[in-house]
Amino acid sequence: MRRFEGRFVLVTGASSGIGLATARRFAAEGAHVICVARAKERLDQVVANLPGTGHLALPFDAASEPEVDNAAIQLKSEQRAIHAAILCAGQHSLRPLQLLKASHIDESLAANVRSALLCTKMAAKLSPPDGSSIVYLGSAAAMIGNIGEAVYAASKGALLSACRSLATELASKRIRVNVVVPGVVQTPMSDRWLSQLAPEQREAVRSRHLLGFGRAEDVAAAIAFLASDEARWITGTCFTIDGGLTCH
Hints:
Blueprint: E1 8-12, H1 17-28, E2 32-37, H2 40-48, E3 56-59, H3 65-77, E4 84-87, H4 102-125, E5 132-137, H5 150-170, E6 175-182, E7 185-186, H6 188-194, H7 199-207, E8 214-215, H8 216-227, E9 238-241
Parallel strand pairs: 1-2, 1-4, 2-3, 4-5, 5-6, 6-9, 7-8
Helix pairs in contact: 1-8, 3-4, 4-5
């Protein structure tokens, strides 16, 4: 399929995991992908290996308002509209309540919520007249209880609420806002937190997924659908992709 031929698609968190798989998916479908992450060298390597042409490595911190504003100025000067913004930048933390500090809360909210909202503002400004699509990367942690994930779950839960509010606010501009809600997907980030668990705990997490752990490509496929014209009547929706984790 070439559903995004000639369109500009912004992907934050594009240097690894779901963001990387998403950048590859959109490039394979003909998009000009604007890849965002903080690590310039990794980002340059990602862009160099994407299929197609017209891609851009745009290194900046998505949680920094001045850096997001500067990126918007650059994209506007280069006449790059944003037909879709896929906001995957974020972090996962596993921390029991008794070890929690205010700084941990601030870090998680900045990485997972502030970055998404700032980039949504930028994407809305650069949206073409006929509209665009914004997709957030949520988490099933916002919908089920897990020990040590209170802050992470709260930050991802905020995206579910923001999605509905912004879908309402931006509908007049034909900008659709949706959120994908994955279960555990095999990525470097999930590998790190799973490594903190005992073997029996890891197996318990895996067994809760009726279809086993997912792949980044599984989530990228759903994101591409939500960003495409096939989903033109879908907005304000939480699209769960979790291998059956939340159905029991």
